[in-house]
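Hi,

I'm pasting everything inline rather than attaching a file, because the server keeps stripping attachments. The sequence lines come first, and each chain or strand is labelled.
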Amino acid sequence: MPELPEVEVVRRGLAAHVTGRTVSGVELSGSRVARRHVPGPEDLVARLTGQVLGEAHRRGKYLWIPLAAPDAADELPAEGLVVHLGMSGQLLVRPPGAPDERHLHARFDFADGGPQLRFVDQRTFGGLSLDRLDGRGIPAPVRHIAPDPFDPAYDRPTAVERLKARHSAVKRGLLDQRVVSGIGNIYADEALWRAGVHGERDSSTLTRPVLGRLLDHVRDVLAAALAAGGTSFDRLYVDVNGASGYFSRSLAAYGQAGMPCRRCGTPIRREAFMNRSSYSCPRCQPRPRRAAR
DNA sequence: CGTTCATCCTGAGAGC
DNA sequence: TGCTCTCAGGATGAAC
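And the predicted assembly:
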């Protein structure tokens, strides 16, 4: 479920609550949560135990926690714990005695005896793995992910060219994490509404200035959502302390079918797209004559 | 090569 | 109440 703002809220929670702490034990319930850790769940547990956690990083919707370099202070961390929340994953900071959550998959205990870190995931599309970090500190599973709009490595002109080169619906481009990362179904629809562009317009037919403005709307809406603590429709998206964000009240398009458009008053429509839903204003975002899908 | 589709899961809500 | 159906913040690999 979480997109960039929600994942960043979680990253900040990790930075505040687990950085610098020593893992004294890890307990996994089932092996599915570690399915992307090729050497297997036992290996994951064994290699995390005793490690000191560094400050959490994020690219797009991926999180990783570098394991602090054990010896030389100037040595870069060689490995990191990679976390993807998928559609329903949560990282929670909870007291050691707290009852197990319904879909608890991993529990980290710390040598200081303080709060545990727990990975809870209803649908288990998310997961954990331990991976090597490259020379720039990026884990292998994240290497193919493009920088997100807040990354110093983000290059707007490159992103514009990538979109311009695609012969496909522009919304597909926004959702493709190899073009720009961090955008999901909610913020794609919000940015398209702000730009006044229908998501099924063929990306290559849009002008570079239009694509550039669309990307700027993406950045702006992601920033506004982050400032509001993210979008929470229910208890599935919460920060590490279990608190909800309140950006859902600011959504202009996503989930607003039948509600008047905030610009022109026309009822927002819902359409099927990519086996899910898209929301848009029929008047501000006219459908293309020949939709690219 | 780029693009599209099916698939991994559980739960909530609607309609009958 | 209970059944069936649809839908949900995502990413991936295999097929075209």
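Residues 134 and 215 of chain A are 28 Å apart (CA to CA).

If the labels don't parse on your end, tell me and I'll reformat.
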